[in-house]
Amino acid sequence: MASTQQQPAEPYGHLVDPDYYQRSGYPHESWRELRTERPIHFIEREQGDSYWAITKHADITAIGRQPEIFSSRMPVVRDQELVDAPSIDLPQAIITLDPPIHAKYRELVSKRMTPRKVAKLHDDIEKIAIRILKDLEEHEDAGCDFVDTVAAPLPIAVIAYLLGVPADDWRQLYKWTNESAGSSDPENRRDGESSRDTMQRAAHEQFRYFAELREERLANPQDDLVTLLANANVDGEPLPVMDVLAFYQILLAAGNETTRNATSGGLLALIEHPEEMAKVQADPSLLGSTVEEILRWTSPVIHFARTATRDSELGGHEIRKGEVVGMFYPSANRDEDVWEDPERFRVDRKRNPHIAFGVGEHYCLGAHVARLELNVIFRHLLPRLAEVEITGPVDRLRSNLIGGVKRLPIRYRLKPVA
Ligand code: HEM
What we know:
By secondary structure, this protein is an alpha+beta fold. The protein has one domain (56-73, 83-300, 351-414): CATH 1.10.630.10. The protein is 46% helix and 12% strand. The strands form five sheets. The protein has a five-stranded mixed sheet. A hairpin with a 2-residue loop joins strand 8 and strand 9 (317-319). Helix 7 (122-138) crosses helix 17 (367-381). Protoporphyrin IX containing FE (HEM) is lined by residues 72, 94-95, 106, 159, 250-251, 254-255, 258-259, 262, 300-301, 304, 329, 356-358, 362, 364-366, 369-370. Residues 72, 94-95, 106, 159, 250-251, 254-255, 258-259, 262, 300-301, 304, 329, 356-358, 362, 364-366, 369-370 line the site of protoporphyrin IX containing FE.
């Protein structure tokens, strides 16, 4: 008998549906289909936010490297709840700037983020990580939520430390970043707020907070990012105050949820692949390749969008001026043309050209910091884990921007410190 069920008009509508990600995690099956059959696929959306879904490594790389054709101006994500709003009242930040001004803003901070500069932070980040891991010892009998105990506190502490935010305020920063990056998730909203309200309120509260801190640092300069940007010049002119505040906010938001989810997703992947966990525990020289594989596997940023500034061609398709392309980084990171066995989680991969940190003009400014954090946390955690198991449902974030594990309940036994 013929099915009476109607076919959905667009079978890939779920790719930017935050509810889907909360319910089911990453749509790897759909991404695989698209990579094979329609790697550049136009998704018609009645709501007026139609876009091209780009799923292959080479095409995303081509887009990322041509910022003059594919602009980062708003909207940088396909989110119905935000797209519906006529405009979102936030200043433009580095992530939404295009050449030539983008590079000038980026340069202000990138000097602090080189591998050499970041390596100097190693001892400080290690101290923060060791202190956070101590909490695992305290919860050993009862078990804990790994996100709340380890994965979330580390990135917020590190970025707050780099910015120069006093430790007493780290908890408040943590709340604001959840509200900014995770505003699609009702758990991060106050009663009666829409996603947009939450994002806007959190932004205003952060702006007020950082405006005061900026004033304080102008009077009492320190060796931190708040002071550096407060005194920054572009083309011989001081950076406008609102741009400085937006810069603080983007650094905070960009470095937080992403690293948190690589950490929690990384542990989850290791628990789900015990033979891989055993491999890296037996051979700590695999830590570097483990971290890269965690980044590839978890790919915490789901998508970013670009808008075509003129008619152009991509992989045989005509992309018209004004059309939007959505780059699905986690799909690129399972591309069969780049990895032989992309669906396998392997801690000893030799070659791993993942683009979890993006590619081209907007390549992640915090990539070295994030790598250091992941290295430090797993270097201290893995040798101590005698046993670990998941004891309850793994809750996911409602978002189409960040693939997030909100709760990862675990029980474990720790070995004594070596
Ligand atoms: C595992 C952790 C992280 C992941 C997966 C990640 C991922 C990304 C991605 C995919 C982009 C490109 C966005 C685009 O395509 O437009 C990006 C940009 C950025 N990230 Fe990260 N990030 C991480 C950690 C961090 C950290 C720790 C910081 C800060 C210390 C940071 C700061 C930034 C900034 C400022 C940008 C914008 C760069 C620009 O527009 O030129 N990220 N990140």
